[in-house]
Every structure is written in structure tokens, then in C-alpha cells.
Amino acid sequence: MLLEEKAEKVRKRIRSTRLEKEFTQDYVGQKLGVSQKTYHRLENGKSQLKVEILFRLAIVLEVNASYFLEI
Asked: Which residue has the higher pLDDT, 44 or 71?
């Protein structure tokens, strides 16, 4: 599996987890200290998802960070 495909699966898992929790992009962005637009770009692959953001997302979405990487 190519790196880009793996990254897309991670982003999809982040999005699906956010939707399961019924959190808006605005809410998650606020918790991360970024705008909704910036968060949207992270979730949709327009910006790189850095490891530190992945760990912070895990806290906000109440999952273990490794959950996003189980692909």
C-alpha cells in the first residue's frame, strides 16, 4: 500500500470517529487551537497531518492514537 493511500485511510478514520462522536469540525478545531477551515484542510488532506496533531486529535476524540494507524 502506498504512503498516500495509508494517509488517506488515517484521515478517513479521523473523520468517521469525529462523526461518530457527533463533533463538528469547528468544535474539534477549537479544541486543537485552529480554525474550522484549518481543521477541514487537515481532515481532507489539503494540509499535512503532523504527529503532534494526531496525538492531540486522539485526546479530543477520546481514542488511543494508535487507533488511527490501525489500517
From this structure: 44
